[in-house]
Specification:
The complex is a heterodimer. Chain A is mainly α. Chain A has helices at residues 2-25, 32-40, 54-62, 75-86, 118-122, 182-190, and strands at residues 104-108, 128-129, 137-138, 158-162. Chain A has a two-stranded antiparallel sheet. In chain A, strands 2-3 form a two-stranded antiparallel ribbon. In chain A, 23% of the residues are buried. Among the domains of chain B are: 20-28 and 116-357, NADH-ubiquinone oxidoreductase 51kDa subunit (Rossmann fold); 368-460, no CATH class. In chain B, helix 3 runs parallel beside helix 4, helix 3 (174-197) packs across helix 6 (271-282) and helix 12 crosses helix 14 (503-525). The longest helix of chain B has 64 residues, at 425-488. Classes of the chains: A mainly alpha, B alpha/beta. Bound molecules: iron/sulfur cluster (SF4) (4 copies). Chain A: [4Fe-4S] cluster 1 binds at residues 46, 49, 54, 71.
Chain lengths: 191, 565
């Protein structure tokens, strides 16, 4: 009788451990709706929406605690996408949260930088490199343009520069507007 | 024996306008006073500059080194002085600038040392590196680095090497003239490619409106005594020179959506590319010049052998542009792009400069609504539904446009050509494509930012945890010490066990008291010492500061509450 008891307990323990392991190993991360919303948000991580990052804002939207028009970097297009996803009405960007700006990156004036590391701590995506008392630099490719490093800098040596268009990022205009290059446009008027 | 040819879907027959520019032989161009050589000329990377302002360069010297996997080198087209390495307007509709090397020719046109290579005895990998550093790219217009296409694929060999001499676009005749005048050397380049690709057969497709070119290439093949190479005259029908279309016509293979021709054992190169491969391997000359057709609104349309970097207006002047010229188009009337200025440089992608005027290319009739007549679908060589693509692009429904294989569109312009409603269809596709690319870039950047943000949060959590653990360990150690100290004294007492419990609290308080005392002492010591013999102003200021210090110090010095919160 004791053998049976032991065997049953043994099986229960093994299965329990298996289940427990599976629960940890195959844990479903987060809510799929939050993921979908987070995928639309621009990941600038600037906090202008009033939440400490894009994911918390996504969670708040999914929970019905936030409006869909609070993210300035996402702009109108982002709001439209959120409205489509959630079946809500489109609203213009809420002014109290900010305005849509051209995409920019932060530039550190390396002559003025005193190496205080305050901006490094502020940057949400670790886009700034440098060590204490060493001049710091921003890795432009990683910078999301969130502006969070501007305020902490004690010597105001960080500025935002709009990203210039290059041939690789240039886009054909919507054809309703005729493409008339500047130089030839004038030549044509004179002709 | 006549080869069986196949037909591709759709296509149109625009006026070819090729006769006038083929009457005179290829001409040389006098050296301009300035060459502007953009470093970014091929699909892919942005070569880094290898020269500085003030450097003297030889003809053929490398001035831009290939960076990364998808890039190819750039060379000085003549000997001279590097005036500047700076952004200059490039021949692109956008009118944007790109980093360019500006060379002032010294007039001697002196070559530097030239490395030749024997392709038969060199391993394929080295040959590919050699061609990358010689800057050889596809000269048909796509400017894809050739060395990347010169890999035989999984099986180690290719069935058919297709050489594209179709040149279907109206007005352009540079490939025609190349075949007429340089067929022998071009054939040597083809043989080198055949060797690298281990191709069984070579088919050179030439539209049948170029009988002299066909004859010249056939004569060259006969003279070389090679077998398995054939020059094939194919029916003139735009766009027979599209890679997929030419492969279809010559081999019957239809490369389906999402597949590449190499999956079917076929690879395609332009005749101009073959010639520059000959120059690179057998003469050691990197790609520094190409043939350019100057046609359209000029008195004497003609083909020129042009150094890369030559300003276009310098070149066009030789052909006698008419007074009412108001635009240059790079490429032909079907696929060409209008240029932002007249003095942009000739680059590796420039096969033709089409000089235009209002009278020659009047503005298109206003766009009318699509009547869904289906003419465009009948004409589309890629077998797409252009009117659907148009509809989705117009309404910015990019997901749908992609579903309808927008990226299979080769922008040949057949659909716009036949559309009775004069819709600039290709403009819509270009718009859609660049929007989709931009979105993809944005998405990649956002994903990277998300990862980095999560990583930073994770790191901060971990640091916080580590710090807390360290503190806890330290506190525990001190507590033990204090408890041990305290325990020795009252250990003799009767109720040792219950006293042990409040001990940590007492010990903690003692620690804090000690720290506070230390701080107080430090503060007292920090009093300025040079307070004697100061001016009254400074004295007053010090007094003021002292007063403020008092206020700040007060709460800190106040007695500690009996229980810490
Ligand atoms: S405002 Fe937009 S980009 Fe900024 S943190 Fe909020 S969701 Fe992210
Ligand atoms: S560098 Fe500045 S602007 Fe750029 S992501 Fe970091 S904190 Fe934001
Ligand atoms: S040819 Fe023009 S009008 Fe006819 S279906 Fe195509 S886009 Fe519409
Ligand atoms: S431009 Fe594109 S859609 Fe139009 S006919 Fe050519 S391949 Fe087809």
């Amino acid at each position: 009788m004791f053998t049976a008891l032991f065997v049953m307990t043994g099986i229960a323990l093994v299965l329990g451990a298996g289940l427990g392991f599976a629960a940890i190993k195959f844990k479903v991360e987060g809510d799929p709706l939050v993921d979908k919303i987070d995928a639309i948000l621009p990941q600038t991580q600037c906090g202008q929406c009033g939440f400490p990052g894009c994911r918390p804002y996504a969670t708040a939207i999914a929970g019905g605690e936030a409006e869909i028009n609070q993210c300035p970097p996402g702009g109108e297009e982002g709001i439209r996408k959120l409205a489509d996803l959630l079946g809500r009405e489109f609203k213009p960007l809420s002014e109290e949260h900010g305005v849509e700006k051209p995409k920019s990156v932060a530039i550190i004036d390396e002559n003025t930088c005193i190496g205080c590391t305050l901006c490094i701590q502020a940057c949400p995506v670790d886009a700034i490199v440098g060590a204490a008392k060493q001049m710091h630099t921003i890795v432009a490719a990683e910078c999301t343009g969130c502006e969070l490093c501007l305020a902490p800098c004690p010597v105001d040596c960080i500025t935002m520069e709009p990203i210039a268009e290059t041939v690789d990022t240039w886009k054909w205009r919507y054809p309703v507007f005729q493409i008339a290059p500047a130089a030839l446009g004038t030549a044509r008027q004179e002709a | 024996m006549l080869r069986k040819l196949f037909k591709f879907h759709g296509g149109v027959k625009p006026q070819t306008n090729k006769e006038r520019s083929t009457t005179a032989p290829i001409a040389a161009v006098p050296l301009p006073d300035r060459l502007v050589i953009p470093l970014h000329q091929a699909v892919g990377g942005h070569p880094r500059p290898l020269v500085q302002p003030g450097d003297r360069v030889f003809k053929g010297q490398r001035i831009g080194g290939a960076d990364g996997n998808l890039s190819s080198a750039v060379h000085a087209s003549t000997s001279g002085l590097v005036r500047d390495v700076a952004p200059a307007v490039m021949p692109h509709t956008s009118g944007l600038t790109t980093l360019s090397v500006i060379i002032e020719p010294d007039g001697e046109d002196r070559w530097g040392e030239l490395d030749k290579v024997n392709y038969r005895s060199t391993p394929p990998d080295e040959l590919r590196d050699f061609l990358r550093d010689a800057g050889v790219v596809g000269l048909g217009g796509a400017v894809f680095p050739s060395y990347l296409k010169l890999k035989p694929g999984k099986e180690g060999k290719l069935k058919t090497l297709v050489i594209n001499g179709a040149e279907c676009e109206p007005f352009i005749t540079c490939d025609d003239m190349l075949m007429r005048e340089r067929a022998g050397d071009m054939l040597k380049g083809i043989l080198a490619m055949r060797h690298m690709l281990q191709a069984e057969e070579v088919l050179i497709g030439i539209e049948d409106n170029k009988p002299q070119a066909v004859a010249a290439v056939q004569a060259a093949i006969a003279a070389s005594g090679q077998s398995g190479i054939e020059a094939v005259a194919i029916p003139t029908r735009y766009p027979a020179g599209g890679a997929k279309q030419l492969i279809r016509v010559l081999t019957g293979i239809e490369v389906p959506h999402g597949r590449r021709s190499t999956d079917f054992g076929v690879q395609c190169f332009n005749v101009g590319t073959a010639f520059s491969i000959y120059e690179a391997l057998e003469l050691g000359r990197p790609l520094i010049s190409r043939l350019v057709t100057v046609a359209g609104n000029v008195d004497a349309p003609r083909n020129y052998d042009v150094l890369i970097g030559t300003p276009m207006d310098h070149l066009v002047r030789l052909a006698g542009p008419r007074a009412d010229t108001d635009r240059y188009i790079m490429g032909g009337p079907m696929m060409g792009v209008r240029l932002p200025a007249f003095d942009v440089p000739v680059v590796k992608a420039t096969n033709c400069i089409l000089v235009g005027s209002e009278a020659m290319f009047p503005a298109p009739a206003p766009e009318m609504p699509c009547i869904r007549c289906g003419e465009c679908a009948k004409a589309c060589p890629a077998d797409l539904a252009p009117f659907e693509l148009y509809w989705f692009s117009r309404s910015k429904n990019f997901g749908k446009a992609q579903e309808y294989h927008l990226f299979d569109c080769i922008e040949c312009g057949c659909c716009s050509f036949v559309c009775p409603s004069h819709i600039p269809l290709v403009d819509y596709y270009r718009f859609s494509k660049s929007e989709i690319w931009a979105r993809e870039r944005e998405k990649e950047a956002a994903d990277a930012a998300r990862d980095r943000f999560e990583f930073k949060n994770h790191r901060q959590e971990r640091e916080k945890l580590e710090k807390a653990e360290k503190l806890a360990a330290k506190a525990a150690a001190t507590r033990e010490k204090v408890a041990a100290d305290g325990a020795t004294a009252p250990a003799a007492g009767s109720d040792a066990a219950p006293a042990a419990k409040p001990a940590p609290d007492a010990a903690k308080r003692a620690l804090i008291e000690a720290a506070m005392e230390k701080a107080r002492q430090q503060k007292a010591q920090a009093a300025p010492r040079n307070t004697e013999q100061l001016s009254p102003d400074v004295q007053a200021e010090i007094a003021d500061i002292e007063a403020r210090r008092e206020i700040v110090a007060k709460p800190a010095a106040s007695p500690l509450p009996p229980q810490d919160a």
